[in-house]
């Protein structure tokens, strides 16, 4: 028995290290992709791998200054932010699907993202990040997300129980309501309309070392804490009452998990707008690849979410170069068909 | 280690309706308690209150320690729970699921120890699911699934195992297999087992003691003999029941039935049934179903017809086993016959002991009470009188007895 599990854990370690390496190479590769743009006219389209490497390890003197600016101040923060946001959305998706025992749950469908968007919109419109501080947008997004998820949860609850279908429908209803609120805010925003509009479509162009630092601290905190609840999430798969019979205080566990998924989702939404499908699809892919055990599912989804969003963003910023399209369009465009494919495949597998 | 589960004055209300009302009971280690009762009588609620999923009023003491002050984790180390069915949407393997039973014993920041794996292995061995270790849950059959869930509960190392109708969705062989498994665990591991049963006979066979719940209260409790009586079953379930003994295990065996017409006020004519050897039971049942009053006699008290008559609660004259009908019994029988509107003689074997019953039928004819004789087999085949029983029957025929072929025709004669 022990050896069986040891083998399994060894396999998990390999998966984790493999994904970590994939993430690293994704980072290195995507950083070379993209137009160099007007900064260095006449230069080649791509920055050579060697240049990237040299600049990253600090030997930037060998290459033009513009390369350093592009890599260190534009591309690297952007890619890191994409990684963080992808990680946040994927982990949040795993948590939602786990505690609501529903494979259709994700931060977007449950209304969490829309709630975060309302919070962030208010902050942006009132210019709070300038008047109060840089944390105010993620903070309001977190508050919006948190209020929404608890609101949805309590509205969907009847007789002390939350039925998954009711929860999803409530989430969809409240989500649409909040989207309407955001649209209204956008409508009255006037001069900031364009800004809000693009932000809501989802995009990573706002990345800076500042945003990366904030996102990194908040998302890492949330993801690490959520990881400590992997066993509780496993038990929740059996249902709320069986989890209680295994000694889990499901009430407080759900609260903690909802708070921290609101935190990570809120942070991601605050800096990147609404990016759909990453939170829904990543957990599904990983469940097929590594199995349902949250101890590996959570870290594997975190890394895969990061990888997926980095690539999506790379496509978003290069496909119509020199203009870029919102990354939310790419994730939905690739994600939706892929999801349908998965659904079909798993249906066939069941037969 | 000796264990004692003591439940005192347990009450639970949902909104304004009381679901459990002052339940008090005690179970020792190595003892199995069966919980029975109609739907909505509070069986499952009782289990959920014991496992502290619900917070009832009253106390649940495990070895004198109240569960109320204890954390969910502490309680989960003592109480395992097996539900009716388990749905698991995600593809966990059997060994992963059983390992989840160790959750209450593990710290949040710690991984499994060798001890944990040993416990898991033992639990899988006890439930005989080692060969399924790497299979996923939804590939398993219903019985296998339930064994996995029991193994998971055992991995908690519980002192008390609660089972909520654990076999209700299984076929009969799986039912017995699971219940045997639980019984063995109870005896060998000395754990307390409390199971909810719908099937009274499974409850009787697999429990040391029983409680019968009705509207949240304990209606009857104790050994199966005491709890499973036709009176108790009638008042709780509103059905009739004959209680026999299980021919192999000797525990009470319940044969439930229901009168076809639920007309308790039997206003129709009275029929006296002369019978024996089990031939009278269907006759009594059919007559009662049709709302008739029935009397019966004289019967050997060991005869199953006698027992049936007692169960049906109809007047019956009994006689000491294997002896001739005494004059007193005969007189009492004739008194019953005189009060009857009809007499039915079933086709039972007649010997010197009960020949007086046939003579009594002649008296009935003398009093102008119609006698209906069921003759589905020839008389000589069941003539053990060493006289000529056919002569007796011929005489009855001359005096106007009606001969019919079967019970249904006899009933028609009565109802005309």
| C-alpha Rg of chain B (nearest Å) | 29 Å
Poorly predicted residue ranges of chain B: none
| Poorly predicted segments of chain A | 38-44
Pattern of helices and strands of chain A: HHHHHHEEHHHHHHHHH
Structural class of chain A: mainly alpha
Shape of chain B: elongated
How would a crystallographer describe the biggest sheet of chain A?
2 strands, antiparallel
Strand order of the largest sheet of chain B: 6-7-8-3-9-10
Quaternary structure type: heterodimer
The biggest sheet of chain B, with number of strands, parallel, antiparallel or mixed sense and barrel status, is: 6 strands, mixed
Question: What is the terminal separation of chain A in angstroms?
Answer: 30 Å
Features:
heterodimer, A: 351 residues, mainly alpha, ABC transporter involved in vitamin B12 uptake, BtuC, globular, B: alpha/beta, 15 helices, elongated
Which helices and strands appear, and what pairs or packs with what?
The complex is a heterodimer of chains A (351) and B (416).
Chain A: H1 2-32, H2 49-56, H3 65-99, H4 112-126, H5 128-131, H6 136-156, E1 157-158, E2 161-162, H7 164-189, H8 193-201, H9 209-227, H10 230-236, H11 240-245, H12 250-272, H13 278-290, H14 294-318, H15 327-350
Antiparallel strand pairs in A: 1-2
Chain B: E1 4-14, E2 17-28, E3 32-36, H1 43-50, E4 57-62, E5 65-66, H2 72-76, E6 79-82, H3 94-100, H4 114-126, H5 142-155, E7 160-164, H6 172-188, E8 192-196, H7 200-206, E9 209-214, E10 217-222, H8 224-227, H9 230-237, E11 240-245, E12 252-257, E13 270-274, H10 280-289, E14 293-300, H11 304-312, E15 316-319, H12 327-339, E16 342-345, H13 355-366, E17 371-374, H14 389-398, E18 402-404, H15 407-415
Parallel strand pairs in B: 3-8, 3-9, 6-7, 7-8, 13-14, 13-16, 14-15, 16-17, 17-18
Antiparallel strand pairs in B: 1-2, 1-4, 4-5, 9-10, 11-12
Helix pairs in contact in B: 3-5, 4-5, 5-6, 10-11, 12-13, 13-14
